[in-house]
Amino acid sequence: MRIIFAGTPVFAATALDALLAAHFEIILVLTQPDRPAGRGMKMQASPVKLLAQQHALQLLQPETLKSPDIQAQLKTLAPDVMVVAAYGLLLPEAVLHIPRHGCINIHASLLPRWRGAAPIQRAILAGDQETGISIMQMDQGLDTGAIILQHAVTITPRDTSATLHDKLAQLGGKSIAEALTLLDRGALQSTQQNEAGACYASKIRKNEAEIDWGQDAAHIDRMIRAFNPGPGACTHLQGDLIKLWQAKIVKTISGQAGEILAAGETGMIVACGQDALRIEILQKAGGKKLSAAQFLAGHDIRPGACFAVAAQ
């Protein structure tokens, strides 16, 4: 089976690696052009490009798939299927029809729940107890195509977007290999999505990460986990921007929202609208991530001080 693979970040590279390990024939890899990244803003290749080069796969990095020349190149390859995983470029309708079996997408949610750009973060923010991988036949809609197969994973109370991403990336690789095996056997079936259960996972906006301590502790805990590793749930303390990376809910303790009720080796206990949070790992702007004990050793923070939404 002749496969074109389209993807860009680590999530996609994990899937490509799984297909290579299963000895599927990858005739072409599409990934986004190199972009400037890091403090030095140096041009960096995507994880998918690096993996493709490692395996000496044919590679293209078009700015768009709307180009007639690019579409002609894809047609010339006569692919059986295109696998798409977090590619980041729109697939025009003409491209969807180039492969004999169309284009198949690896999506990090149990569709129709959390269509869109940020399904992992939105699932944690919403307090979902499970999510998963959907292998979907692509159409012109936004994650609206027929479902080929789905596999679920539990979202634990300690999962962050980083840990959940890694679980789903591994599951995505196994799932697409399973789907392509069924396709090769002519045993692939699909089911239309139930529109009644659809919801949209909009892209995370930076201002969403600013903590309102009037919210209950469970909500703020979900924010901290959902915005880890980025953009980082943030607040202010004594005029400094602080990012929070790990916390635990402390039940039945209350006080003024944002007030530090205790500060010691086991963390800082901060009052919320309901219950409290024990802050365990935090980071001052421009500094390193520190345990609460390390942070307190270098800062004169005492009970009665208050975190705030904005610098005072």
TrEMBL record:
The lineage of its organism: Bacteria, Pseudomonadati, Pseudomonadota, Betaproteobacteria, Nitrosomonadales. Attaches a formyl group to the free amino group of methionyl-tRNA(fMet). The formyl group appears to play a dual role in the initiator identity of N-formylmethionyl-tRNA by promoting its recognition by IF2 and preventing the misappropriation of this tRNA by the elongation apparatus. Residues 203-299 form the Formyl transferase C-terminal domain. Belongs to the Fmt family. (6S)-5,6,7,8-tetrahydrofolate binds at S109, L110, L111, P112. Its EC number is 2.1.2.9. Residues 1-180 form the Formyl transferase N-terminal domain. Keywords: Protein biosynthesis, Transferase. Pfam families: Formyl_trans_C, Formyl_trans_N. SUPFAM superfamilies: FMT C-terminal domain-like, Formyltransferase. It comes from the Bacteria. GO terms for molecular function: methionyl-tRNA formyltransferase activity. It catalyses: L-methionyl-tRNA(fMet) + (6R)-10-formyltetrahydrofolate = N-formyl-L-methionyl-tRNA(fMet) + (6S)-5,6,7,8-tetrahydrofolate + H(+). The keyword DNA damage does not apply. This is Methionyl-tRNA formyltransferase. InterPro entries: Fmt (IPR005794), Formyl_trans_C (IPR005793), Formyl_trans_C_sf (IPR037022), Formyl_transf_N (IPR002376), Formyl_transf_N_sf (IPR036477), Formyl_transferase-like_C_sf (IPR011034), Met-tRNA-FMT_C (IPR044135), Met-tRNA-FMT_N (IPR041711). GO terms for cellular component: cytosol. The keyword Protein biosynthesis applies. HAMAP family: Formyl_trans. It is an enzyme of class 2 (transferase). Gene3D superfamilies: Formyl transferase, C-terminal domain (3.10.25.10), Formyl transferase, N-terminal domain (3.40.50.170).
